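Let us work through a complete example step by step.
Step 1: write down the sequence.
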Amino acid sequence: MEDREIVALYLARSEDAVPETAGKYGARCLSLARNLLDTDEDAQECVNDVYLEAWNSIPPARPENLGAWLCRVTRNLAVDRYRKSRRQKRYAGMELLLDELGDCVPDGPEADVEETFDARELGRAIGNWLRAQSPRDRALFVRRYSDGEPLNRLAEACGEKPQKLAKKMLRLRLSLKEALEKEGYTV
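Step 2: predict the structure and record it as tokens.
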């Protein structure tokens, strides 16, 4: 089923919307949640929350790219779940990703208008940097820092040793940091 048809099911408040969403995007959302949360139970709960969020948000939202929208919702809910559980030190994977990126990306903005604009500009700068990378480097960076894929699994998929890939990821982060500093961002 096409995305627009699934969105139409939500708009019509059809009970078929959630099963169609789960059938098309459930595995992708679950994989993303697992990469960020490390426990199957929490990942599954997160995905169920994604379906609830879709049901509650469409309408008024009308996502043009349902898959990307669901991944963003999944990532946001997983990060929220991580933050709530961080005090218990349950999610070492997410902590590692945030630590790695913390050296090259400024702290996140609060909810004020000026800072929201700054966050959009930061997103634009990161997007420009990503577009300047080779397709392979771009894919590696996104798989690691957007999808939360563990380094050893990523190295295996690329046919590289984890240590070599770790050095590659460090070079990419340093390149991002340099690009952001040229744009006027400081860590």
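Step 3: interpret the result. The chain has two domains: 3-90, 95-182.
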